[in-house]
């Protein structure tokens, strides 16, 4: 309705690497997006303008971006394996709770 979109990369079972978290944060800063953890154990980037969508997905898929804001004293440059699109709708298994291993499950 507002002309803005959500961008939700795939985060299988809620497991995300530190590099992927940094990548998502840098992309959010670069395009002035707000973030939240969804009920499906993914991290959503919200408030994307239509004209930024191809650039946002290019940054996420190729796994590289950089952002510099001197006023806020923030500078980020990241290169990682990249991410793929998560399925927003469809007939799919969702909200599955997963165990992160024997060290963390109690």
From TrEMBL:
GO terms for molecular function: iron-sulfur cluster binding; metal ion binding; oxidoreductase activity. Keywords: Heme, Iron, Iron-sulfur, Metal-binding, Oxidoreductase. The keyword Iron-sulfur applies. Residues 3-60 form the Nitrite/Sulfite reductase ferredoxin-like domain. This is Nitrite/Sulfite reductase ferredoxin-like domain-containing protein.
């Amino acid at each position: 309705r507002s002309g803005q979109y959500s961008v939700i990369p795939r985060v299988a079972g809620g497991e995300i690497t530190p590099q992927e978290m940094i990548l998502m944060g840098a992309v959010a800063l670069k395009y002035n997006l707000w973030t939240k953890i969804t009920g499906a154990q993914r991290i959503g980037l919200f408030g994307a303008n239509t004209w930024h969508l191809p650039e946002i997905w290019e940054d996420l898929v190729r796994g590289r971006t950089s952002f510099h804001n001197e006023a806020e004293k923030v500078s980020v440059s990241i290169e990682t394996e990249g991410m793929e699109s998560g399925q927003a709708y469809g007939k799919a298994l969702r909200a599955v709770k997963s165990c992160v291993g024997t060290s963390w499950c109690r």
